[in-house]
Amino acid sequence: MSSKKDFDIIIVGGGMVGASLACGLAEEAENLSIAVIDAHAPNLDWEQDSYDMRVSAITRASQMLFKNIAVWEKIFEQRVSPYRDMFVWDAGGKGELHFDSADMGEADLGHIIENRVIVKALHQRMLELPQIELFYPAQLNSIEFNELNTRLILEDGTEFSTSLVVGADGTRSWIRQQADIAVKGWDFDQAALVTTVKTEKYHQDTAWQRFLNTGPLAFLPLSEGYSSIVWSTSPEEAQRLTDISEAEFAVELEQAFESKLGKIESVAGRAVFPLRLFETLNYVKPRLALVGDAAHTIHPLAGQGVNLGLADVASLITVIVEALNDKKDIGALKVLRRYERWRRADNRSMLVAMDGIKRIFGSELAIVKDLRNFGLNMTDYVTPFKNLIMQQAMGVNVASGKPGDSKV
Ligand SMILES: Cc1cc2nc3c(=O)[nH]c(=O)nc-3n(C[C@H](O)[C@H](O)[C@H](O)COP(=O)(O)OP(=O)(O)OC[C@H]3O[C@@H](n4cnc5c(N)ncnc54)[C@H](O)[C@@H]3O)c2cc1C
């Protein structure tokens, strides 16, 4: 039997970004009714001695957002790994760059956290907030944008109407496609192989990244001396690295990493993710806003994807709360455009920077190699510039500064 439900806001996608938005809105505007619809129920149960192959480097700015929505403690009590240093070097020369949190007077630069840990903590928090209703797993069938509301219908016939729908449904966003919002992407023939390994030497709480001409290879520190690997390369090479035996893979990984952490003692599974780089031409239209990967997807080399999504969340909450205070329609284009203007500039500069870095480090031209090595060494040497990059990487003092300004 079909039923009809009305909500002030419906968020499609209860991943790290969509669920953070739901929690933040419920914290900041207690009279709002919020629905979260996701095609899948979250994974809440796993072997404690296993690691999720998908992890995120969470910046200080994102940590602050999690604190403000009462989620950080729930994440922290599960498992987090602080990284205190970052070490970046170029396979095609002698260029290297070292960031130490102590130079900034900070205990760490951020934390490496398993995605499933973040999603579980957010899920627990959403269950505590009475304004939020969860619809998991639920398949959407159709959406209709009207002047005064958006209507959504599930495959089982359940009908929803709302003043504002938010597409937080990831890089292949169904909502974005239904709204006919085009994306502008860069040609990007790369995939990321991810796995978890145990190394002979301790990782020294350092996020390591070596730039090979095929793409960057990152070792991200986890607890108990384990490291999470993100190896970006061509899709064919990623497939080959998945197909070879574990022992062969361990040898190739150690060589590609110049044995910085000694032998690779164990490898736990391997998975490949296609990499994309795009942003949408519009983040909003009447009664619709896109956030996170649905609006922009970047290369994981700087570990910024979800952090940008969480900055979208902080901005959109601020815009919605101000509209509510001013008794404005939260789904009106004029209100939503503020969010779009705010976030587009920050997201675009990160997208362009990531594309540039990827191309510069992918080049085999001798002059480009010389220049990038000179650039890395100079950056390492010039303290104010280095500090600026570190602040950017930590998500503090970001270009607009606005997300940090908001209460969330
Ligand atoms: C290999 C790799 C490493 C990365 N490392 C980092 C890192 O270190 N730091 C960092 O900041 N970022 C990193 N990223 C990027 C980060 O993973 C993404 O930016 C982040 O997952 C985006 O979150 P999201 O909530 O927007 O989308 P998603 O995580 O994709 O969540 C989307 C949600 O929507 C749901 N959904 C999808 N379709 C529908 C539908 N039709 N109906 C209903 N629900 C739907 C899904 O079930 C899911 O729950 C990495 C990415 C990759 C590929």
Structure classification: alpha+beta
Distance between the termini: 39 Å
Helical stretch count?
Answer: 12
Number of strands: 21
How confident overall, as mean pLDDT? 89
Summarize the structure.
This protein is an alpha+beta fold and 408 residues long.
Outline the structure in words.
By secondary structure, the protein is an alpha+beta fold. The strands form four sheets. Strands 1, 2, 8, 9, 10, 11, 19 and 20 form an eight-stranded mixed sheet that branches. It has a seven-stranded mixed sheet with strand order 6-5-14-15-16-13-17, with helices on both faces. Helix 1 runs parallel beside helix 8. It is globular, with a radius of gyration of 22 Å. It binds flavin-adenine dinucleotide. The site of flavin-adenine dinucleotide has 31 residues, from helix 1, strand 3, strand 13 and helix 8.
Characteristics:
408 residues, alpha+beta, eight-stranded mixed β-sheet, seven-stranded mixed β-sheet, 37% helix, disordered C terminus, binds flavin-adenine dinucleotide
Q: How are the SSEs placed, and which strands pair?
A:
Blueprint: E1 4-12, H1 16-28, E2 34-37, E3 55-58, H2 60-68, H3 72-76, E4 81-83, E5 85-90, E6 96-100, E7 110-114, H4 115-128, E8 132-135, E9 140-145, E10 150-154, E11 159-167, H5 174-178, E12 183-185, E13 191-199, E14 206-212, E15 215-221, E16 226-233, H6 235-243, H7 246-256, E17 264-274, E18 278-280, E19 284-285, E20 288-290, E21 296-297, H8 305-325, H9 333-362, H10 366-381, H11 383-394, H12 402-405
Parallel strand pairs: 1-2, 1-11, 2-8, 5-14, 11-20
Antiparallel strand pairs: 3-7, 4-7, 5-6, 9-10, 10-11, 12-18, 13-16, 13-17, 14-15, 15-16, 18-21, 19-20
Helix pairs in contact: 1-4, 1-8, 8-9
Bound molecules: flavin-adenine dinucleotide.
Flavin-adenine dinucleotide (FAD) binds near residues 14, 40, 292 and 303.
